[in-house]
């Protein structure tokens, strides 16, 4: 008899029934389900909005960075050979992304074509016997923080004598500002994302907790008739997951049309960025990620909320 | 079958609800547990389902110390013990059929057995015609009979009834007690905690009187209601 009383082999967990029961609960609690789903949808929309802002600022910074470089202007008596020596020295630096050599002739050519409509400049140039412009090296770094060390490298170069001036010092302000904006966006964005995520989890958790608190007597009865913890928890986890799933559907249904509407305005502001295109090509990933986040959020909230009701 | 050895239960800070209780109940007994409210009857029953644990002493069922059962295995203990309460403890959003079926589902019983056993046990308690009724659509007596049906579905060795007639009128109370006696005749050990004198005297079997957490009298045969 003892072994029939304590035959602990079968806790009788039937996954299909448990999930079906979670679905039934979801339908029967429609009022509370609506609340929890709405809150989670808001949280997910916030998350998506944050994602767009993050994308926009990073794109803007990239665009700006592309426009920043430093140039080393060579003295007029520098030979092309010396210029190319400096160039190859620079290329060997790990910070340097690209170096373009602009010869004296090239510089003149560029200058002329830039000012084709300015007759005064054209005439003055025509009166000169020699080319007044100097050759230069345009240097791009991998990131804007590295320009200072590149400038320093040039300062110490054995060919420093043929370098007339390094315009880093003129661009320094701009470069540093971009740098600080980019860092600010990164850290503030991360901070904001964390705070929002915390709020979303807390609010969702509280909503689910209220739902479960309403049914505490039912949970007690389930325990008394010998339902295992998984048997009790299962339907609530399913229910939480369903809140998350529906919330993600709502969030996406709100987000995509909004992005579509906003996209044109953003393009006017940062022309290189196509917000809608970015999110549209990433559609499968975004959908999967949001659905996954929603489901995890719902299930995690349920798990925490139900824990204290499961004490034996 | 059921043994309590020097069981002591104190609710903080220092309310003694069970005070060195020694008790032995054999298989197939029908025991009435009487005493005023707060005498410790309910706590004693809760010790057997491990809803409560003693501060000291031992509670054993079939030679197994309940303190040795892992938390995860407590549901299995509870499936072996039927319980009936004054407030019925029915799932209000499930029908009569679903209430009983749920107790079977949690054990992993297959659908076929559920469909066979549930109507059978409901007709034993006289609810064969109310399978699809919700608890709120039933009378107190019917609710309690439904609760008994649920407690019987696992064919438990032990049935604990905590004031099962507390909310019922005389006629319904007798029906419920008759049902408990019938279950007892089929071999289940029944422990009935009550302060209904008429019922105790009518059953007339072993009567244990409790007062302030102690067993003050144990009439093993043909007992009468004495506090």
Describe the structure concisely.
The complex is a heterodimer of chains A (312) and B (227). By secondary structure, chain A is of the alpha+beta class. Chain A is 73% helix and 7% strand.
Topology overview:
The complex is a heterodimer of chains A (312) and B (227).
Chain A: H1 2-5, H2 15-28, H3 30-67, E1 70-74, H4 80-91, E2 96-102, H5 104-114, H6 119-127, E3 136-141, H7 147-156, E4 163-166, H8 168-214, H9 216-224, H10 229-269, H11 275-281, H12 283-307
Antiparallel strand pairs in A: 1-3, 1-4, 2-3
Chain B: E1 2-11, E2 15-25, E3 30-34, H1 41-48, E4 56-61, E5 64-65, H2 74-79, E6 81-85, H3 96-105, H4 111-124, H5 140-152, E7 158-162, H6 170-185, E8 189-194, H7 197-203, E9 206-211, E10 214-219
Helix pairs in contact in B: 3-4, 3-5, 4-5, 5-6
Task: Tell me about this structure.
The complex is a heterodimer of chains A (312) and B (227). Chain A has twelve helices and four strands. Chain A folds into two domains: 15-64 and 179-310, no CATH class; 67-177, Alpha-Beta Plaits. Chain A starts with a helix and ends in a 5-residue tail after the last helix. Chain A is elongated, with a radius of gyration of 32 Å. By secondary structure, chain A is of the alpha+beta class. The model of chain A is unreliable at 1-11 (pLDDT under 50). Chain B has 227 residues and is α/β, with parallel strands linked by helices. Chain B has one domain (2-66, 76-219): 3-Layer(aba) Sandwich (Rossmann fold), CATH 3.40.50. Chain B is built from seven helices and ten strands. Chain B has helices at 41-48, 74-79, 96-105, 111-124, 140-152, 170-185, 197-203, and strands at 2-11, 15-25, 30-34, 56-61, 64-65, 81-85, 158-162, 189-194, 206-211, 214-219. In chain B, the strands form two sheets. A six-stranded mixed β-sheet of chain B has the order 6-7-8-3-9-10, with helices on both faces. A four-stranded antiparallel β-sheet of chain B has the order 2-1-4-5, covered by helices on one side. In chain B, helix 3 (96-105) runs parallel beside helix 5 (140-152) and helix 4 crosses helix 5 (140-152). The model of chain B has no long low-confidence stretch (mean pLDDT 91). The interface between A and B is medium-sized, with 27 and 35 residues.
């Amino acid at each position: 008899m003892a072994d029939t009383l304590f035959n602990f082999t079968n806790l009788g967990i039937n996954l299909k029934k448990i999930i079906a029961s979670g679905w039934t609960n979801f339908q029967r609690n429609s009022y509370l389900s609506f609340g929890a789903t709405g809150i989670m949808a808001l949280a997910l929309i916030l998350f998506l909005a944050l994602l767009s802002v993050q994308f926009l600022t990073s794109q803007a910074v990239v665009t700006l960075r592309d426009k920043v470089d430093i140039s080393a202007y060579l003295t007029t008596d520098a030979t092309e050979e010396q210029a190319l020596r400096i160039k190859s020295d620079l290329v060997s630096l790990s910070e340097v992304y690209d170096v373009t050599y602009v010869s004296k002739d090239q510089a003149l050519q560029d200058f002329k074509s830039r000012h084709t409509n300015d007759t005064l400049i054209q005439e003055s140039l025509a009166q000169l016997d020699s080319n007044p412009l100097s050759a230069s090296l345009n240097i791009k770094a991998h990131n804007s923080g590295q320009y200072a060390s590149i400038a320093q490298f040039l300062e110490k170069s054995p060919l420093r004598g043929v370098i007339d001036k390094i315009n880093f010092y003129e661009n320094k302000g701009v470069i540093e500002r971009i740098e600080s904006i980019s860092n600010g966006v990164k850290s503030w964005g991360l901070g904001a994302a964390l705070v929002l995520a915390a709020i979303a989890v807390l609010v969702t958790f509280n909503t689910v907790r209220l739902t479960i608190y309403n049914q505490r007597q039912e949970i007690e009865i389930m325990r008394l008739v010998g339902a295992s913890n998984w048997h009790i928890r299962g339907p609530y986890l399913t229910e939480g997951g369903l809140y998350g799933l529906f919330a993600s559907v709502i969030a996406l249904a709100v987000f995509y049309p909004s992005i579509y509407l906003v996209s044109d305005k953003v393009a006017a502001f940062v022309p290189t960025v196509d917000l809608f295109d970015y999110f549209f090509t990433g559609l499968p990933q975004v959908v999967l990620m949001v659905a996954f986040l929603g489901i995890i959020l719902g299930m995690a909230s349920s798990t925490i909320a139900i824990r204290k009701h499961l004490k034996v | 079958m059921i043994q309590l050895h020097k069981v002591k239960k104190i609710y903080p800070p220092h309310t003694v609800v069970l005070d060195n209780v020694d008790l032995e109940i054999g298989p197939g007994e029908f025991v009435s547990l009487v005493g005023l409210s707060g005498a410790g009857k309910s706590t004693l029953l809760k010790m057997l389902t491990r809803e409560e644990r003693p501060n000291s002493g031992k509670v054993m069922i079939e030679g197994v110390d309940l303190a040795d059962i892992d938390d995860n295995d407590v549901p299995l203990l509870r499936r072996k013990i039927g319980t009936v309460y004054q407030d019925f403890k029915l799932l209000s959003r499930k029908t009569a059929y679903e209430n009983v079926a749920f107790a079977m589902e949690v054990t992993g019983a297959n659908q076929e057995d559920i469909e066979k056993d549930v109507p059978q046990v409901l007709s034993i308690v006289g609810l064969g015609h109310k399978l699809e009724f919700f608890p709120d659509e039933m009378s107190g007596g019917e609710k309690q009979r439904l609760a008994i049906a649920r407690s019987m579905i696992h064919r438990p060795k032990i049935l604990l009834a905590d004031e099962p007639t507390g909310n019922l009128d005389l006629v319904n109370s007798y029906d419920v007690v008759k049902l408990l006696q019938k279950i007892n005749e089929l071999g289940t050990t029944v422990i009935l905690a009550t302060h209904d004198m008429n019922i105790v005297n009518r059953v007339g079997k072993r009567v244990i009187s409790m007062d302030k957490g102690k067993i003050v009298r144990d009439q093993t045969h043909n007992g009468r209601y004495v506090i």
